[in-house]
Amino acid sequence: MDNNKFMRSVRLREASCHGCINCIKYCPTQAIRVHNGKAHIIDKFCIDCGRCIVTCPHHAKIAVYDPLTVINNFKYTVALPAPSLYAQYNNLTNVDIVLNALLKLGFDEVYEVSAAAELVSEASREYIKEHGAEVPFISSACPSVIRLIRVKFPSLISRLLPLKAPVEVAAEIARARAMKTTGLKPEEIGIIFISPCPSKVSYAKSPLGIKKSNIDNVIAIKDVYPLLLPHMKHDESHLRPLSHSGRIGIGWSNSGGEVGGLLADNYLAADGIVNILKVLEELEDEKLHGLSFVELNACSGGCVGGTLTVENAYIAMTKTKRLTRYQPVAKNRLLDNPELQSIYWEDDVEYEPVFRLGNTFKESLKMMSDVEKLTAMFPGLDCGSCGAPTCQTLAEDIVRGDATPNDCIYVLRSNISDLSHKIRALTQGETDSSTNGLSSEDRKLLDQYIKELTSELASFGVPERTR
């Protein structure tokens, strides 16, 4: 298996994990198991949505990303701030305040992802207009959504809008302009994205739709946020005019911002991974009609709700709307950006059947039948005590060879109860006449063992009448 194919940035801090099974109940793709008192994330199932980071009460799930010191690895660095960065600050009236602070922090240049978002909005309008018979299309801006569709909803892959994400468009333009300005080689220029979520960290290392990303490193908004504060000067007379994006581009940070750039009415915008799953299921079942576009954001509230941000998502949404109130609709057009070679995907996104049980159709049918039989054997409580999120998931793990029926505490209790009956019958000479020939010393040892076993059965909660 290509390990980079299922790259993930959400990791487990094992020392902090209490094995509490909260994470397995909230993971939308059932990518987590708990065994031997510790959680384990299955790479090929994980889509880096970060929901386990939010729900873990012990902070055992973390996002892995680059430190700010990566700017020292290049001769020239360009910061790509996500538009959700602006919504982290109180009473911000001018985006240039943040952009100038980034230069003072050590970056050589800044290129707004929100500016590139306006180019993607323009390309989206044109593409949907030209392919009107193929609607509805699904946004391809959120890497977690693409990864989710790739592994669970193969019939919807063809509906993904085949456009590069705004951050990739920004990276491509920023590198081209930096090369022209400095005369440096591509590898001497660092394109650093300031991200609201871990999924974009994985995207930079293992992108979908393109062969290789122009993003060199990804740092977290929450790390940059406090460092910018001392450099943010609200005396606008001394600011270098750096902002080149309007209401559409900055609005991409909020749920509904992307569809706002389409200037159309027949759309659906959903945020939060649970809501997204419902929408994708209804799209797959063809229950949604009359739509031309579907915007999906894995994080609640949109990118402002990413796990690498600091502000409450819904307060940040309000801040974004306040900041863009008097902005022009847009400031960027595709014709004015010749550095962008193509805004379309270079590669197809292919279905990855990670949840398929067998290697062949015949084998899969046999294994599915085994799963049904095993699932019927379990109590159907989906309690998670086995370390898997549901009884069916445990059955699938057993069929794959990753678990045993005794992982179910109820099956184990029943088996121990049966064992205790057999041992008692053995000591009473009911099943094997040879026990009548046991010496008194051996019988004492066996009686002691039965007492210990009875005590263990009590600890498992086996009723006394079954011991």
Question: Overview of this structure, please?
Answer:
The protein is an alpha/beta fold and 467 residues long. The chain contains 16 helices and 11 strands. The strands form 4 sheets. A 4-stranded parallel sheet has the order 6-5-8-9, with helices on both faces. The chain has a 3-stranded parallel sheet with strand order 7-11-10, covered by helices on one side. β10, α11 and β11 form a beta-alpha-beta unit. α4 crosses α6, α13 packs across α14 and α15 runs antiparallel to α16. The longest helix has 20 residues. The two termini are 48 Å apart.
In short:
The chain has 467 residues and is an alpha/beta fold.
- Portion in beta strands: 5-15%
Global structural class: alpha/beta
Number of strands: 11
Main beta-sheet strand count, sense and barrel state:
4 strands, parallel
Low-confidence runs (pLDDT<50, min 5 residues)?
461-467
Strand order of the largest sheet: 6-5-8-9
Coarse morphology: elongated
SSE string, helices as H and strands as E? EHEEHEEHEHEHHEHEHHHEHEHHHHH
Number of helices: 16
Distance between the termini: 48 Å
Characteristics of this structure?
467 residues, alpha/beta, four-stranded parallel β-sheet, three-stranded parallel β-sheet, 16 helices, 10% strand
Topology (elements, then pairings):
Layout: E1 10-12, H1 22-26, E2 32-35, E3 38-41, H2 51-55, E4 61-63, E5 76-81, H3 95-105, E6 109-110, H4 113-130, E7 137-138, H5 143-152, H6 166-182, E8 189-195, H7 199-205, E9 217-220, H8 221-228, H9 247-251, H10 257-260, E10 267-271, H11 273-284, E11 293-297, H12 313-323, H13 361-377, H14 391-400, H15 409-427, H16 440-459
